[in-house]
Amino acid sequence: MNEKYKKEFVTYFNGEIVPDSEVKVHYSDSSMALGYSVVDCARTFSHRPFKLRDHIERFYLSMKAVRIDPGMSPDEMERITLAVLEANIPRIEPEMDVWLNQQISGGKNLRAIGGFEFADPALIISSPPLTLPDYAHLYDTGVHAVTPSIRHIPPQTLDSKIKHKSRLFMCMGEFEVKAVDPEAFSLFMDLKGNLTENKGANFFIFSNGILQTPKTDNALDGISRATMLELANKLDIPTSEKDIQPFHVINAEEAFFCSTSYCILPITRFNSFTVGSGKPGPVFQRLIQAWSERVHTDIIAQAKGRVADKVS
Amino acid sequence: MNEKYKKEFVTYFNGEIVPDSEVKVHYSDSSMALGYSVVDCARTFSHRPFKLRDHIERFYLSMKAVRIDPGMSPDEMERITLAVLEANIPRIEPEMDVWLNQQISGGKNLRAIGGFEFADPALIISSPPLTLPDYAHLYDTGVHAVTPSIRHIPPQTLDSKIKHKSRLFMCMGEFEVKAVDPEAFSLFMDLKGNLTENKGANFFIFSNGILQTPKTDNALDGISRATMLELANKLDIPTSEKDIQPFHVINAEEAFFCSTSYCILPITRFNSFTVGSGKPGPVFQRLIQAWSERVHTDIIAQAKGRVADKVS
Amino acid sequence: MNEKYKKEFVTYFNGEIVPDSEVKVHYSDSSMALGYSVVDCARTFSHRPFKLRDHIERFYLSMKAVRIDPGMSPDEMERITLAVLEANIPRIEPEMDVWLNQQISGGKNLRAIGGFEFADPALIISSPPLTLPDYAHLYDTGVHAVTPSIRHIPPQTLDSKIKHKSRLFMCMGEFEVKAVDPEAFSLFMDLKGNLTENKGANFFIFSNGILQTPKTDNALDGISRATMLELANKLDIPTSEKDIQPFHVINAEEAFFCSTSYCILPITRFNSFTVGSGKPGPVFQRLIQAWSERVHTDIIAQAKGRVADKVS
Amino acid sequence: MNEKYKKEFVTYFNGEIVPDSEVKVHYSDSSMALGYSVVDCARTFSHRPFKLRDHIERFYLSMKAVRIDPGMSPDEMERITLAVLEANIPRIEPEMDVWLNQQISGGKNLRAIGGFEFADPALIISSPPLTLPDYAHLYDTGVHAVTPSIRHIPPQTLDSKIKHKSRLFMCMGEFEVKAVDPEAFSLFMDLKGNLTENKGANFFIFSNGILQTPKTDNALDGISRATMLELANKLDIPTSEKDIQPFHVINAEEAFFCSTSYCILPITRFNSFTVGSGKPGPVFQRLIQAWSERVHTDIIAQAKGRVADKVS
Amino acid sequence: MNEKYKKEFVTYFNGEIVPDSEVKVHYSDSSMALGYSVVDCARTFSHRPFKLRDHIERFYLSMKAVRIDPGMSPDEMERITLAVLEANIPRIEPEMDVWLNQQISGGKNLRAIGGFEFADPALIISSPPLTLPDYAHLYDTGVHAVTPSIRHIPPQTLDSKIKHKSRLFMCMGEFEVKAVDPEAFSLFMDLKGNLTENKGANFFIFSNGILQTPKTDNALDGISRATMLELANKLDIPTSEKDIQPFHVINAEEAFFCSTSYCILPITRFNSFTVGSGKPGPVFQRLIQAWSERVHTDIIAQAKGRVADKVS
Amino acid sequence: MNEKYKKEFVTYFNGEIVPDSEVKVHYSDSSMALGYSVVDCARTFSHRPFKLRDHIERFYLSMKAVRIDPGMSPDEMERITLAVLEANIPRIEPEMDVWLNQQISGGKNLRAIGGFEFADPALIISSPPLTLPDYAHLYDTGVHAVTPSIRHIPPQTLDSKIKHKSRLFMCMGEFEVKAVDPEAFSLFMDLKGNLTENKGANFFIFSNGILQTPKTDNALDGISRATMLELANKLDIPTSEKDIQPFHVINAEEAFFCSTSYCILPITRFNSFTVGSGKPGPVFQRLIQAWSERVHTDIIAQAKGRVADKVS
């Protein structure tokens, strides 16, 4: 992440808005000691929040599922998020956009051995800049999706519909796929052999005229995923939620990842197979175009513009 | 944890020894952002380290398995740990003992979306006091072990032989068992229905004259577990590693948890069944006695002494 | 069960209608020796049978699946059931209702070791009184549904669409959940971590405007479940059959059990999480109202009236 | 079973010794209503009990595991069993032997819907005659063991180390194997594909000079199984407990079932493969000989003698 | 197969059309050495190809999934297939029809140990006669479908949507079901206990007015399966893809296999249960009639006619 | 494979010894049509067969397990194998060695659709030259073992103790690992996450002073594996068969593949982790030395010598 920008930004931390670099947590906090923390991440387009309320509501679903009480209402959470954004607006360059992140820990365990009673959750609301140049070229080349030998965590251990931060297994999978291709993105299989999701993105294929995505048994019920389905609906592209296996991707016409930051990236290779034509396809073009229109921002141009800036 | 003491202790943090309360990590560190961190925990008995080298060597196994390079040798790690202990000795009351903990994060991800390249791992070496009074009474009453409906993480997702901090699923299981009995300890089943381990302890039964413990397929290869096997060997108690199922515990003569802090606690109830006589049994007495002798410290008396202090 | 009433009732037993207390089976019958028996249970509303034919037809499905031949047609079975009801009518208090149960065993194994040839199935058709007061208060408080650590029997071992009586594993799960809360109802997970059913009831959630229930892969294809779907359809509530995981219940607006006896009970707590508002919700009110209208009986009032009677 | 003899025998039933034909249980008892019952089965050799105490102790393990309290001590249980045997001795023909069975139900559920509180367990202690002729010829021909497509119940649903009577799934498997061969015996696979046990017997192979039997993860910890291991030990035949797969049986030198009644039967065919020579082998001969010596009864001759009687 | 006819037929083999008996492959080819080969099979009706292009397109899907490049376009493949058919037309008796098969191997491994680089795939395009008489009687009697104890290969090992020739496990299952009934057809369960497909056919049930077939998670996405769904649609029979378990077949009204050669065969027995009436049912009649009309060939009459020829 | 030599060699094929290039099989043979074939592979050292009888006996185990009858005794099979070797001796260069392979197919299916009756198995006994230079350098560099995302076939589908040729899934895994590193060797995980074997080799680790190898639940019971255990025994290296997981390999001191051709190759990298020192270790040196002594052939020198020849 670009440290220069980040240092100048401010962040909400347990009741105060402070310089981001001061948001530090003692190592005994359960976020560090146990991976006990949840998060949500919205973003702005042209400095306007996109689906912020949806993200905050999902943040409350995640918090309830892990038994964390933030001590404030969703309205209050939204109000603070917007205040952080407003405070940072002067620091955001015109063509740049930012994340709108909420994260909270379980706090500290008051009772050491055996007991289990937490207090003082650490709540952080931040709006760091999006690092658009990092992925701008992938709109053209597409992504290489690779399935690691590591399997996604089963829901009877931890439900991936919780947007949690206990993701060491995903880091290990990510290292595996980088050994195949340093630019590859992970695409995890579940224990049954169905494809699920990337470390930070949902997954889609377009095949036989239908936009298809895995059910959320082993995947985040993503807000970008929901946006994909809405846009497809508007474009009269039929959609379905179903079990997707490697065979389906190998023989799909197109495939995609979607996430808050980059919205949609085409998948043009899968486990070293060429997907479709091997280039971003027409369904990708229609979807990213529709998304751009919806947010009044040319998503790809914005990302590439930032590359140009950096080069000059 | 007792904040009064803790604040006075010092801790090693990325090259310096500083007051423990100053050991704070920015929220973008991968330990908070991804649960990407590993740990090891030894302790002192009568202010002398116990099996410190074994713990440090296991710490290096965990680090290798998650691809973290601490940038120093095990000798150096041991030297720093002893330096932290020495610095804190004046702060440790005579009848008290301390943890000897090493923990490290993956550091920060230098490349935001898609990329995966980490730098600046956060290394923390600390010796906080053991909160002996919290569990002193359990040497007499025994523990109620309860299996949550949540299953242990399978090794093809994340190997529990890595002493990691991505433990949200374990917190969720712990909450489940506390609903059965606020003093209960979790005992996780794996996906096949075998018992594995507690959130922070290995598990044993004594049955048909044999001290038995699960294989480490789904459990930490614990150093306290190894001590148990060594002590049993010395006491001529036969041991075996095998799959243990709830039926075995229900009908065992005795059962135990073992961990660095409390060494051994008897399990006297399991899923609301009485185990054996329902009281700490003779094998427990022999093992804790042998452990006490080995460390030249009356483990139970020490724990109970602290309770007395607190009360007065 | 209320012994006073029951003794007075009559029951069909292998060709005769006899006092219920005389319906006793030798311990060598396969129902006792092997759990080899199936059952079905309808009930009356205001003394009129409800969906009796549907229950009898399902009884024939269960019998076929376990290779028991009752030696009579469904028509004959229905006729006898009605005759038992008629015989008991004078014994049923006006505000009371009864079960209409058919059960049959595999009979006796004619060949002892190795052989497998059964004869003389024991057929019992009874109409014991419904013990309405036992659950009347739950229409107001709602039920606490709890998932035991025990998993539902997989269909490749025994299909739960067969309404069988080989339910020891369910008893064991029920004991586990009573340890959490003596009033809790079991809600079993299958081996994959999906929720299935209660020991004697199907399970529903209402979420995102849709009434949802697990597929019948690991659950009875319940006739009350079918009634729920019919009533929802009539009330223009969309429905779907899908995999439901704990996360979905924790964040549902409402949840329910449905069964022949109590029709619908609201679930207001799940694994100690509050479900929705923690009180019976509007969808419950609409469904129980519609069911009451369909059977010309105020279901809740009837149950509560019996409580009053008992008290006075 | 031979009704003529059986009617004459007496049986203990809830405190009294009565003619066996009077031991009948109301259909509301949980043994019939829920398959909630456990059992144990010893036998006599030449009218002397064999390992009766071991069986009674295992009966207490089973009862504890399913939370049934018989209200008497093992000594009392043994005393009653011997009293039943003694009462029946005059009815037992000299060359005949009997079972020594204990079985108990969970009793009646005192609270109907939702509640779970049992009382009045039905305890039955009986000594019916062994139907030796039914299997006498199998000592010569050997048994055809067949694996049904139905899988054994997993231990996280119900532990097969409990000798329970909730065995409908086993009946269904038995019907499947009888379709292959009316004389075939079932041999169940577990969900992982390992062989486990027969409906009423443990399973062994002899291969590479070692007598091998599955671990008890998915099988009864049989007392006949223990006898096999003891006899092998005495005969200097090495033994091991290990995962056994169909390949191992197909290529074994010999294979066996063992159970209380017939002690050992050779398996000479497996899934229509010939096992070893296709005839009872030398290890079978040595084991059955050693068993006969141990119980001072020629096991095979006794069985065949009864056949002769029947024919004449 | 009828050798007399077959010898006279010609077949395409790596660039040439040669007498079929000359199409022989060296044993070092990966089709023999590793089971590394894929196939597709169309047929003619009244000497006209049926859905040939669909089969060829699926052949290209299979080839891509196993990384075989045939070195020609689908158009060229189709052209050659038609040329083979044309060459054989004079050899085909008027009332007879033929297969239209493409198969290809991975070729030879150029690098022996460790390396993996293939060349010279063996491509064979043939049109052998259909052996109609072999199954003509099954249109009247129906088929006995039997589930072996062997489970279908899971998709995370090998995807059954690839029409491959690495089918030893299926042969083993087929032998198991022939032991039950020499005329039985295999119907494989997957590891979860759902029914999947026959060795060479897809599987359907008709139940509750709906034509149902397993999803293709563990089954070929069959072209005959697609034809079934198209015909049902034309006949206004609702269809669905869902998990089907043995209980569903036992209680279905009708059941079917469908494949390229015989189109549809009724299943009248399943694991020795009678399915429906035990005779080919009305839905079978409607579907086979519609299929016959679509291909301008009386499918059953043609098969039976061949029987007559053979007899005379 | 070296075509020049191979063409000159002779091979036994269904009763005759013929030039190897003439050993061709019609594509309708079940080895090509169904992957229905088994194999075994011994080799010579200095032109002398090694453990030939063990290989032939295992070949008979494999044949029995897949129901193929070769129509000859093991003695006859051995005699033919030696005759083939003898015939080829003049063609083998002095410093070269050869395979001694037996393979057989199921033959042809006599009945086309539904039926299953095979005849005319194709038996091939060959002694092609070992391509030693292909792997000579790996004795120095060691091998990079990589786990593909594809899982090994479960034993309830097909037992890997059968040395079969239905290995398409293994080819697919091999392609996956070559994408990580073109010189990598596959190391398959089973469905539970344990490591099993390579496409053509068994797998060992040396850790904590013990030579460890997976049980044969999901792996060939290899004759080279047996040799490893024998040599270790002779060298006083303790051995054990146990579940091995990636963590164990990452932290092992050494690791190995063993197979008929190369005997032992050190594994120096695993999933891009360095194993031990990253170089062939002392246990490898002792084992390969002991093996060389046993076969009176310097295994590594022989392999390297061939490289020299090729270069000159």
Please tag this protein with its features.
homohexamer; 312 residues; alpha+beta; D-amino Acid Aminotransferase, Chain A, domain 1; D-amino Acid Aminotransferase, Chain A, domain 2; 2 domains; eight-stranded mixed β-sheet; six-stranded antiparallel β-sheet; 17 strands; 32% helix; disordered C terminus
Q: Mind telling me which CATH architecture of the largest domain in chain A this is?
A: Alpha-Beta Barrel
**Cα-atom radius of gyration of chain A:** 20 Å
What's the level 1 CATH class of the largest domain in chain A?
Answer: Alpha Beta
Number of strands of chain A: 17
Give the biggest beta sheet of chain A. Answer: 8 strands, mixed
State the domain count of chain A: 2
Estimate what percentage of residues of chain A fall within beta strands.
15-25%
What's the arrangement of secondary structure elements?
6 copies of one chain form a homohexamer.
Chain A: H1 3-8, E1 10-13, E2 16-19, E3 24-26, H2 30-34, E4 37-45, E5 48-50, H3 52-65, H4 74-88, E6 99-105, E7 108-109, E8 118-119, E9 123-126, H5 138-141, E10 143-146, H6 168-180, E11 185-186, E12 202-207, E13 210-213, H7 223-234, E14 239-241, H8 246-250, E15 254-259, E16 263-270, E17 273-274, H9 282-294, H10 299-311
Parallel strand pairs in A: 10-11, 10-16, 13-14
Antiparallel strand pairs in A: 1-2, 1-9, 4-5, 4-6, 6-9, 7-8, 12-13, 12-15, 15-16, 16-17
